[in-house]
Amino acid sequence: MHINMLRIAIRSHLRLASNLRQNRHRSGNQLLRGQFRSASTFDYKDPLLLRNLLEDEEIAIAETAQEYSSQKLLPRVLAAYRDEDFDKNILKEMGEAGFLGATITGYGCAGVSDVAMGLITREVERVDSGYRSALSVQSSLSMGAIHDFGTEELKEQFLPEMARGAIVGCFGLTEPNHGSDPGSMETIARVDPNREGMYLLSGSKTWITNSPIADVLIVWAKLDGKIRGFLVERSRCPPGTLETPAIKNKTGLRASITGMVHMDNVPVPKEFMFPDVEGLRGPFACLNNARYGIAWGTMGALEDCIERAREYALSRKQFKGNPLAKYQLIQKKLADAVTDATFGLLACVQVGRLKGQGLIVPEMISMIKRQNCDRSLVHARCLQEIFGGNAVADEYHIGRHVANLFVAQTYEGQSDIHSLILGRAITGVQAFC
Ligand code: TGC
Ligand code: FAD
């Protein structure tokens, strides 16, 4: 009796357990079906729900950047690109919006997350890489150098005005004879034999974004054979010591202004040399942030190419009145591009989060800079084919993105250079020389 009761109890327990399992399985299936149902509205603009990985504040910042870029930048980009004209007021507008030096805390800067900053660069470059370039050079390279390596006096003197876009900065590392290999730079600094507490800078930098309009130039030069960073104020340079001619007739990045920097004994007070950083670590630390921004930005440019190519493919009819979008080869181009844009953006969020947690190493940034620049260029070029002959007309925007993305793949470390950085980390063997 006792045993029977126990059996009954066990049977009933097993039945209960089985029911529970079935219920759990059923509700799990229902849940999954529910999830599939809600995800069945596959959104090619956000296929893997990147949005779910963002904080509310980051979404709001992205929306602000999207609104600014589409309303203020897009209407002027064609004329700017045709005329090779960069409107300096754009930096003031970006300053007003809080985009300049946005990850810096204090000094009039917004202090947003690295992911939020990435979302801003994505929206700006959705319009044009040249506008993102202006933003990157002002924020990551110029303000970033002052913030990370300048004295407190330099930070207080320059950062608030730079955050407003009232003072424009540039970053001079590349030289006519030394691009991928900046360690061999020839620009030198020497102690002024006639004035105590002054250095004199001599040499040339080339391909320097914003140099013709810069009020403040971050210049990397060798002092006694060691690379040091200097802040050059244009207004302090005696006539004939500093020239910053523009490089005209570019085939890409025409909405951005690029120039040279010629220095012939430019005087710099010793307080304007970054005191505690020596060697390539200085410029490369700034480049880490800028390269991270490019990885995001190029995805914005690619997303714009996708959007425009999709619309074109749906409206253009060829063969028996079919839209181009009906053809498999066209669909494959779009599927490939959307997949790489999605993966590229997810990688950016992950690297941004790691950056925020202080878990980043430079090779992670090399990986996303290289991958996103390469994939965006390949896909933009491929999507360009969908437009046929119309791709040649600048009103379709795609040719501009293709030309710009070649530049993005080249500056801040050409893609093959990032392959070598990754290769060194993978094998432990250095292959640069
Ligand atoms: P290497 O021996 O690798 O390093 C020398 C020293 O630098 C340190 N370092 C880094 N520190 C922080 N972050 C990084 N990413 C770093 N990479 C290297 C390294 O630890 C070492 O420190 P220390 O203290 O031991 O001396 O130097 P290398 O001469 O062998 O360098 C080789 C290579 C290829 C990696 C490097 O030269 C390179 O990255 N070349 C590419 C040059 C480049 O990116 N130029 C960019 C110019 S600025 C620009 O393009 C702006 S465009 C802006 C726009 O419009 O958007
Ligand atoms: P090179 O170093 O001559 O390289 C040429 C080719 O050789 C590349 O494909 C490269 O990958 C390859 N190569 C070089 N070395 C090796 C090797 N060891 N192994 C295999 N392949 C190799 N610089 C700044 O300092 N500040 C700026 O603001 C700035 N803005 C720019 C804006 C524009 C529009 C452009 C076009 C460039 C800008 N640059 C700037 C310069 C840019 O960073 C350099 O162009 C870039 O670093 C490459 O250097 P390079 O042009 O001298 O090419």
TrEMBL record:
- Residue ranges of domain Acyl-CoA oxidase/dehydrogenase middle in the record: 170-266
- GO terms for biological process? fatty acid beta-oxidation using acyl-CoA dehydrogenase; fatty-acyl-CoA biosynthetic process
Task: Report the top EC class in one word.
Answer: oxidoreductase
Cofactor(s) it depends on: FAD
Which Gene3D superfamilies does this one have?
A: Acyl-CoA dehydrogenase/oxidase, N-terminal domain, Butyryl-CoA Dehydrogenase, subunit A, domain 2, Butyryl-CoA Dehydrogenase, subunit A, domain 3
- What coarse category fits the chief subcellular location reported for this protein? mitochondrion
Q: Where is the Acyl-CoA dehydrogenase/oxidase C-terminal domain?
A: 284-426
Keyword list (alphabetical) reads:
FAD, Flavoprotein, Mitochondrion, Oxidoreductase, Transit peptide
Q: What is its EC number?
A: 1.3.8.6
Q: Which CDD domains match?
A: GCD (cd01151)
Q: Where is the Acyl-CoA dehydrogenase/oxidase N-terminal domain?
A: 56-165
As one GO molecular function, the record gives: flavin adenine dinucleotide binding
Q: Which Pfam families match?
A: Acyl-CoA_dh_1, Acyl-CoA_dh_M, Acyl-CoA_dh_N
CC terms in the record's Gene Ontology section:
mitochondrial inner membrane; mitochondrial matrix
Pathway in which the depicted protein is active: Amino-acid metabolism; tryptophan metabolism; Amino-acid metabolism; lysine degradation
- Subcellular location as annotated: Mitochondrion matrix
Q: Which reaction does it catalyse?
A: glutaryl-CoA + oxidized [electron-transfer flavoprotein] + 2 H(+) = (2E)-butenoyl-CoA + reduced [electron-transfer flavoprotein] + CO2
Record PANTHER family: GLUTARYL-COA DEHYDROGENASE, MITOCHONDRIAL
Which family, according to the similarity comment?
Belongs to the acyl-CoA dehydrogenase family.
Protein name per its UniProtKB record = glutaryl-CoA dehydrogenase (ETF)
In its UniProt entry, the species of origin is given as: Orbilia blumenaviensis
Source species taxonomy: Eukaryota, Fungi, Dikarya, Ascomycota, Pezizomycotina
